[in-house]
Specification:
With 279 residues, this protein is an all-alpha fold. The chain has 16 helices and no strands. It has helices spanning 6-21, 27-41, 53-58, 62-74, 81-88, 93-96, 104-114, 121-128, 135-147, 149-162, 166-173, 181-193, 198-208, 214-221, 228-240, 255-272.
Amino acid sequence: MKLYDFDGMFDEKLGEYVKNNADKYRESEWENIIPALYKKFGDTFIKSVGDTPNGFYAKMSNEELVTALKTHLKKQVPVSEYLCNAIEKRNTVQLLLPLLRGSESEAEYAVNLIGADNAAIPEYMRIIVSKDASRDLKDACVDLVKEKADLAISQAVGYYKKGVEREYMLEIMSRSVIRSDEVFEILLNEFRTDPDNVPMHASYLAAYGDERAMQYLLDKIDEEGISFVEFRELKFAIEALGGEYTKVRDFSSDPYFELINSRSEATADVFGMFGDEKN
């Protein structure tokens, strides 16, 4: 299969364009111009290719597109957006699934191209509990599984009970839509028994949306020893469940409160510079 480094070709053309137009645009303008030029390059006829980048991939079958992706990665030829866009426009999920068991780079591209498709959820769960996958790849899979959490809830509960990637499993469980007393009890128990991670577990209860957690959140936020960071997340969780907490608390001695407050004041000062001017 013939491979083309379309990104390399574009970079070459871009270098010439920037050199010839360096004085015409500010740096902030180039940030918008370059993506527009890249998009335009996708429909630019390239004599050595005999087609445009978009046209080159449009003529390929689904199988050829996925094979092209694998070959680019294997031979370390940059993968262009033109190839990725061509794949995303086709029904290629079944062809991409095997890449999830390939190299790290193949799996990363497959995850990005497949997205939260139901057929990929079991494979994403396999990657999440794998000892070989990188943390970044696992994070990407978790984000997608959360969109379809109910499809993986039984696995998530099972892995949690076995002590496998428990934080990931809690995060997934918190996004399930179908209510379960078992899941609620797990999330609530973690909130009550893990004092070092109150904000995180409060956010899981907020995401799960079971109003039975309200009283536990109210009891916790009313404790005198909580930090400002914990207070903020608890208050958010209470409001997310439809409640409110109006008691005035003093966190002036909390270093995080001072830091956040100073940043807020600095931001207000900056915006104040651009206030309305009176004529």
